[in-house]
Specification:
- This protein is 17% helix and 40% strand.
- The protein is an alpha+beta fold and 278 residues long.
- Strands 6-5-4-3-2-1-13-12-11-10-9-8-7 form a 13-stranded antiparallel sheet.
- The longest helix has 18 residues.
- The radius of gyration is 18 Å and the shape is globular.
Length: 278
């Protein structure tokens, strides 16, 4: 994967790219150490993205930290909130989320819900009891790879099958950006997502990016994601995010933003595969 209304339903859908809604192991999109060696660049856009990834911390550096635990919070303009404790092992992309607040995700279930991907299958618990509802498990199969992907998005922009195009140099609010279009190889002629990165020439960070949602037919109108960073264990993490509908010129209206945050990030916590079993 190389990341992405009725408002409350499609907003979760917007935070994804390259997901699998079936209860099967997702396509292997784990980045490898090989991608981090300076490649033969496709073009200028590729080189700009490569250098940006080295700046924030490449996948080799991320994978050396082995695992992560953090708090994920997602709030829509109507005030509905999801808050989960997320746990990932990078090798194999194992993923777990415990939702103490889930006003948007399976809101009909009261109490704690736990979601997991153990490397082979997805599972769901409600107040400690295993649930087998097919529709619920489809939601888990959406959330687990989605949340993992957004946490590792920049590193994954160097995966095989990613295409790059330098668009222009552009000044916004006195800041100068290299604008790079990122797209992905298609399988079975299915549409794929498009990202448009705004790489700050002074900081070599992506201050914002446009993204589409091909799986939901949202290709004409992108969303604009704006990022703020925090350094954690030598990595620059985009821990504060906000996004909403935009134009391809990155113009937005005065409607409220969707707010996403990652807090209490702790790497290398000695998680094991047993922590991801139901």
């Amino acid at each position: 994967m190389r990341l992405h209304l009725t408002t409350s339903i499609l907003l979760i859908s917007l935070l994804v790219s390259c997901k699998n809604e079936n209860q099967v192991k997702p396509e292997n999109k784990t980045s490898t150490v090989e991608q981090e060696q300076a490649p033969k660049f496709q073009n200028k856009g590729h080189e700009l993205v490569f250098n940006m990834v080295q700046n924030v911390g490449n996948y080799e550096k991320l994978s050396q930290l082995k695992d992560v635990v953090y708090t994920y919070t997602y709030q829509t303009p109507d005030g509905k909130t999801d808050s989960s404790t997320e746990k990932y092992i990078f090798d194999g992309e194992l993923s777990y989320g415990a939702y103490n607040t889930h006003e948007r995700t399976l809101a009909n279930l009261e109490g704690v819900i736990e979601q997991g991907y153990d490397g082979n299958a997805y599972w769901l618990k409600h107040n400690g009891d295993v649930l087998t509802n097919e529709d619920y498990l489809k939601r888990v199969a959406f959330n687990r790879p989605t949340n993992f992907y957004w946490f590792t998005m920049f590193q994954k922009l160097l995966d095989p099958g990613v295409n790059y195009e330098f668009i222009e140099e552009k000044t916004i609010d006195s800041k100068t950006y290299d604008v790079v279009k990122v797209s992905f190889d298609s399988k079975n002629d299915k549409p794929t997502d498009i990202y448009q990165l705004y790489i700050n020439k002074d900081t070599n960070l992506v201050d914002q990016f446009l993204f589409t949602v091909a799986d939901f037919g949202k290709m004409e109108t992108p969303n604009l994601m704006v990022l703020d960073y925090e350094e954690v264990d030598g990595l620059l993490m985009p821990t504060k995010r906000k996004y909403k509908l935009s134009t391809w010129n990155a113009d937005v209206d005065d409607k409220p933003w969707i707010i996403v945050s990652w807090t209490n990030i702790k790497f290398n916590t000695n998680l094991t595969k047993d922590d991801f079993k139901k």
